[in-house]
């Protein structure tokens, strides 16, 4: 099991053990670098950032594309490392490499356009003699705190746009999975020979808290519980923070859905990465006429999933283990709570004898009194609820403190759109699951307690790491401006008349009169 077993060695720092969750093997021990480590890294990053910003988007993209080459050249190594520290199947881990490549290509190719000085049309009489522009200037140092479910894809989602914006980035990956990102950072520094504007600190929550103290902006991905603490501290320091938090994504299957596609999507969307994805299908509402067929088909597909480790890259398994014992216990307790309240387990429902595996599970006869329908399970479970009609499905989907993503299934696009517009979530995938997150031109924004701010979204994805600097320059050189000192009666009265002439909405006021009421 991956544990956070921390030991104070006689002389050295506190060590964090990283164990493979599938078999309990010790993979590595890393130091908890603590606030001192954070301070040293932050200082170095700040020193390196100005030259990085000066390189401009094209200069930075050159290093990014070399990083992409390094990732591809080391694909097996990185996937293997991810598998060791997470217990993922090879296929699940491999998709993180695909994400990394896509992110680098997208921001590497678009950064110049997204970051270009923006010319703005001037306004009003004063503006007639002005040129207006907006420069995008990066925050010098951005702190990124990431969870354990995607050790490569997670940091890349926010790290690539921030680096391309010209920031230096200080990462603190989860204490459960510090190895993959430490290796990627080593690759950046030692193999790509890129400037030292990327650092990865190892440690637990206290080290994470020190990152928040040391940076100019925080991009946090993790639980809603921790997100609140980060937001409070960032508020206190008056630095911006973006929060990408938990979800309880609903899948709504209408009676005119393609059930073959919908059931394949439900099986993948609920089980990918053992359900440890913020945007996984966490609950499913199916209209009564197609409920029985849907349940039968999806249960069969979930039963066919192969679970285990495939460290040789043979793709012999679909689904791996849970990443840590805490999360396994949460999944187990949600299933037990549902069964106690009357739910039926159609397949799965229990943990394996060895390793942190939890069987892919389908639950029916569930309702909103159960934890599996209300709280984030973050595990390989698919609870399915029968609904009388679309109205009930929408009402239940919205009956949640979360609002991250969702999906609607119907062959009628207008019908699906009508439902989508009533769902309280930052994304709706019509006849698909999770895909909106991986379409980088779209914003990913958690509504309600699922987050604050957005990631991705075309230019927005990179501009969130920049401060907008408004620049005004003179079109023609005047010795003075009409509104500067000294005030003189004639010229000031003329100005006041001009204000009326140009600003009033009726002739009476334009000519200096007050209309009778
Ligand atoms: P977590 O909140 O426990 O930890 C996230 C990170 O914050 C870790 O690096 C952790 O060490 C650090 N941290 C913990 N306490 C801290 C503190 N007080 N100050 C500073 N840093 C602190 O989350 P987790 O259990 O690692 O991840 C699972 C959660 O992440 C789930 O809720 C999941 O939905 C969410 N998640 C969200 C997204 C998204 O994009 N919305 C993506 C992936 C995961």
From TrEMBL:
Active site, UniProt feature: 244
Domain Aldehyde dehydrogenase: start-end pairs: 16-471
Keyword Methyltransferase recorded: no
InterPro entries to which the protein is assigned, alphabetical: Ald_DH/histidinol_DH (IPR016161), Ald_DH_C (IPR016163), Ald_DH_CS_GLU (IPR029510), Ald_DH_N (IPR016162), Aldehyde_DH_dom (IPR015590)
Annotated keywords: Oxidoreductase
Superkingdom of origin: Bacteria
SUPFAM superfamilies tied to this protein: ALDH-like
Residue intervals passing through the bilayer: none
Membership in a protein family: Belongs to the aldehyde dehydrogenase family.
Name used for this protein in its record: Aldehyde dehydrogenase
Natural source organism: Protofrankia coriariae
């Amino acid at each position: 099991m991956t544990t956070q077993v921390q030991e104070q060695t006689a002389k050295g720092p506190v060590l964090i053990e990283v164990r493979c969750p599938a078999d309990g093997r010790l993979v590595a021990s890393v130091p908890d670098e603590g606030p001192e480590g954070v301070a040293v890294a932050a200082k170095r990053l700040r020193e390196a950032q100005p030259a990085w910003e000066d390189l401009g988007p094209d200069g930075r993209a050159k290093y990014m594309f070399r990083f992409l080459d390094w990732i591809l050249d080391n694909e097996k190594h990185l996937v293997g490392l991810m598998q060791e520290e997470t217990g993922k199947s090879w296929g699940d881990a491999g998709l993180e490499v695909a994400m990394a490549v896509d992110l680098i290509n997208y921001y590497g190719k678009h950064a110049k356009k997204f970051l270009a000085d923006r010319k703005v049309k001037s306004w009003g009489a004063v503006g007639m003699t002005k040129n207006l522009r907006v420069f995008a200037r990066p925050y010098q140092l951005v702190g990124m705190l990431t969870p354990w479910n995607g050790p490569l894809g997670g940091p890349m989602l926010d790290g690539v746009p921030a680096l391309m914006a010209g920031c230096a980035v200080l990462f603190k990956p989860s204490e459960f999975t510090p190895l993959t990102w430490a290796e990627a950072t080593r690759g950046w520094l030692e193999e790509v020979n890129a400037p030292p504007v990327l650092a990865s600190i190892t440690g637990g929550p206290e080290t994470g808290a020190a990152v928040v103290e040391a940076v100019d902006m925080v991009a946090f991905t993790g639980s809603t519980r921790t997100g609140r603490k980060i937001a409070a501290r960032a508020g206190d320091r008056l630095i911006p923070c973006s929060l990408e938090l938990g979800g309880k994504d609903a899948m709504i299957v209408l009676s005119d859905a393609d059930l073959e596609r919908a059931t394949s999507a439900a099986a993948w969307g609920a089980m990918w990465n053992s359900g440890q994805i913020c945007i996984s299908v966490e609950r499913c509402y199916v209209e009564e006429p197609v409920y029985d067929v849907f349940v039968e088909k999806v249960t069969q597909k979930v039963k066919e999933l192969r679970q285990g480790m495939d460290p040789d890259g043979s793709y012999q398994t679909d689904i791996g283990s849970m990443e840590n014992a805490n999360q396994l216990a949460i999944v187990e307790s949600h299933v037990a709570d549902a069964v106690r309240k009357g739910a039926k387990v159609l397949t799965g429902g229990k943990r394996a004898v060895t390793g942190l595996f939890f069987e892919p599970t389908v639950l029916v006869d569930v309702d909103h009194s159960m934890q599996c329908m209300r709280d984030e399970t973050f595990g390989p479970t698919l609870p399915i609820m029968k609904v009388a009609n679309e109205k009930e499905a929408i009402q239940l989907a919205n009956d949640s403190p979360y609002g991250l993503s969702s999906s609607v299934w119907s062959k009628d696009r207008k019908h699906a759109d009508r439902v989508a517009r009533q769902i309280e979530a930052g994304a709706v995938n019509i006849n698909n699951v999770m895909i909106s997150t991986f379409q980088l031109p779209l914003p990913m924004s958690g509504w309600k307690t699922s987050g604050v701010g957005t990631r991705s979204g075309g230019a927005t994805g990179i501009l969130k790491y920049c401060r907008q600097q408004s620049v005004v320059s003179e079109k023609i050189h005047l010795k003075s401006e009409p509104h500067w000192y000294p005030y003189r009666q004639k010229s000031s009265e003329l100005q006041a008349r001009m204000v009326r002439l140009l600003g009033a909405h009726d002739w009476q006021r334009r000519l200096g009169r007050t209309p009778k009421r």
